[in-house]
Amino acid sequence: MRNPQNDRLGRKNSVSPERSAKPTAKPIRPEPSQGTQAGRVSTSLDTNGGAGKANSPERTCILSRRKGTRDDLIRLALGPDGSVAPDVRARAPGRGAWIGVTQAELDAANAKGKLKAALQRAFKTNEVTVPADLGARTAQALRQGALDRLGMEARASNLINGADRVEQAARGGKVHMLIHAADAGEDGRGKLDQAWRVGGGEERGVIFPEERTILSMALGRENVVHVALTDPAAASRVRHALGRWLAFTGPDRGLEGGEPASRTGSADDVLTKE
């Protein structure tokens, strides 16, 4: 196992009940006409040229009334005891309601009682208990989904790590997504970004909103600072998981080049790059 000089191993937090991320996503490197640019993360799950999204029934956010597919929004599940919990995989049994807002917007609606009122209308019952930290729980579930997705792709041998291996693959045009830990050095990032451009890749890799210790534990490997997805479908799945997390947590958790990502009201708005 490679041990890059400046890397170290840490620990990863876990979240229950969320276990694994949804394995579908939008093509990761669209043509310029599609409007998606390098360095930002796609949150759309369209993997069938639009067919999958077209066939998916629309849901409506109970707060903003924005419409979207189940892949665009986040489901809140009602437990038997009336408690509300995030169901980011949309797999929990029973009744559910959908939201399409940021964590800040959700927290504000919760504090003012608007969220509880909207949930009571959606569930057609007054027996609804909304935890004060629902926003934080939802963000943690999305975070865990992104980490789990990276771990699954690592176990499937769809990614590589280590500066030398990543650079070689990037120059050879074999990298479909490049990820840097939040604490990766600027020189190391720049060198690999340049190699990716030489190999016909995007302008730069994305900066993951966690440090190398978390990436190392997520992948089950030591000393993970730089990660390259070498399978296009795997890169799509990772892009989706990261983009969905970012769309909820908001611009302060930007991924692109260390800069906050813009957000104007929906998950897909995260795609644009300056």
TrEMBL record:
Stretches assigned to the YlxR domain: 59-126
Region Disordered: start-end pairs: 1-66, 250-274
Biased composition (Polar residues): 33-47
Pfam families: YlxR
PANTHER family documented for this protein: BLL0784 PROTEIN, YLXR DOMAIN-CONTAINING PROTEIN
Name of the protein: DUF448 domain-containing protein
Organism: Sphingomonas lutea
